[in-house]
Amino acid sequence: MQAISLFPVGALDPIEDLADRAILAIRQLLEAGHPLVVAYSGGKDSSIVAALALHAAVLHRAAGGNPLVVVTTGDTLVESPEVTEHYRAELSRMRAFGKRNGIKVQTAIVQPVLAATFQIKVLSGRALPSFPGTHGDCSTDLKILPQRAFRRGLFRSLSQQGHAEPVTLLGTRYAESARRNVNMRQRGESATRPARNQDGDLVLSPVCHWQDDDIWEGLALYGSSVRPGYSDFEDMRRLYAHAVGTSCAVVADAILYGGSGSRRQGKCGARLGCHVCQMAEDKSLANMVEYDERYAYAAGLQRLNRFIRNTRFDWGRRHWVGRTIRGGFIKVQPDTYHPTMVRELVRYMLQLDYDEQCRAERAGERPKFELLPLDMLVAVDALQSLNGLARPFAAWADWRDIRTRGIRYDIPDVPPVAQTAVPQARFLHVGEEWDDTAAAAEWTGLRDPYLESFTADSACGPEIQLTASGRAIWSLPTDQQFSVDVEAALLISEFELDRLLETHDAGVAPGQVVYGYRWYAQYGCLTLSHGQRAEHDEVARRTAYKDRLGLTLEYDVGALRERALPFEALQPAGQAAWQQVATPQHSLF
């Protein structure tokens, strides 16, 4: 098959020749019935791949074919706002291009599941941000797994519709870096023949042999209407340039890479990393804020990033109360964030959201970001109650204070805390099981004697089920993933908020800090994953016990350490249970 082009053979310059070779390879896929899936990030490489794919689809349509192009990108929900705005606009242009040219163009923005987001993992006390020297699972949770799940569902749907196997088009190039070159060769990536990736999917890398200059020339070719293009790529060039503090995208690209690929802004490979990224000191957003007043709105995001980075080794901001019982003891040592630190972060995010909404209203535009939308706010509030990190409905109280009482929570500019070794572990006796010394311990998990007695003779009461261990708990709704019912959350914000705030302001008795979680659960606002009912019952029992011991909320770390025992003071059974932490810890957390 000869290359198909809008230009006569012999009149091609080198970039046109490269483009036509790529289009030929892509057209062969379309002629074989394969739908195209473009992995799009908004950067230069994926942008030229999208342009080539859409051009090939136009030519295939003109020849009587019926091409399908699906363009998918990922939103980590903590993206640089400029990146989010950019790829949304470009995806819209792709859809418009498809409509103008009579080709099917579908776009999808893939987001992580709620429980895997930065906000829920960190603010619920389940994890720390991914710091250098630790297991950086953020890229996997926020990018790789969501895209993998989306592709599985998409491919299954296309198969059911009778399509051939889709082929994913990548913007990977051998010239990007030595490491990328080796990895691509191991995967057998090709510009002409689809290869199978580690997930078993067919992938084609149509620009894998292109150089940087080829990419920029190709974008100029498709952005200047010389060939049918979906975009002029001016916004992309602006982001490239301003991320380095220059006015030229090509110069910025050279500054960043210098031919070695060693100066990427983010460790995950993103040119403009997530605004909360700690794995690499991504200066792109800071450069933009300094370079042009149009980015001033993002200064608060940079302050939040610096605050998290500078307090990494402040052990007083860590939660010292362990979760695991061994030999009747729990470990007392810094782990995830202390309840007071978590409360600070929630307040800072709510303040940033409010300030941005006010700015956007004055400017007559949509807010550039929202760190804690309604579903996340409810999830954070519920899970903080479950884990004893905040009083019931504390997030709503902070929301009220900021929006109606004029209280501000501005992010402080704190100096970096010097790196030190993690303090030596101590051990606190709690008994063989959480709550085994509590009166009526069967009511301390996902049960509520008042609610159940009040609704005993009606159909409104919670349904009870038994766990595998024989505990009776509420039979809460389950699905594949933890989620918040957005409609129920809206009803709460409109009709229940005053009552929740009254409950927060009145306070709860010791052992009842989990009341907020139970309230959301019985309201029908939360759906748990299949394994979470028994797990959350156990967490609720543990939290209630800690709450009675004064080990939730604003507990004093120094007082806790005084109550705990050093390893040497443990009985032989306790020492045997905790032998692995008998030596000083040097983890960087």
Structural summary, described in words:
This is Phosphoadenosine phosphosulfate sulfotransferase. It comes from Cupriavidus laharis. The chain is an alpha/beta fold and 589 residues long. It contains 20 helices and 13 strands. The strands form four sheets. The chain has a six-stranded mixed sheet. A three-stranded mixed sheet has the order 11-13-12. The protein has a two-stranded antiparallel sheet with strand order 7-8. It starts with 13 loop residues before the first helix and ends in a 12-residue tail after the last helix.
Number of domain units: 2
Q: Main beta sheet, described?
A: 6 strands, mixed
| Structure class | alpha/beta
Point out poorly predicted stretches. 1-11, 259-265, 585-589
- Tell me what portion of residues adopts beta-strand conformation: 5-15%
Order of the strands making up the biggest sheet:
3-2-1-4-6-5
Number of beta-strand segments: 13
In which range does the helix fraction lie? Answer: 40-55%
How many helical elements?
20
Q: Return Rg in Å.
A: 27 Å
* Form type: elongated
N-to-C CA distance: 57 Å
Mean pLDDT: 89
Summarize the structure.
This is Phosphoadenosine phosphosulfate sulfotransferase. The protein is of the alpha/beta class.
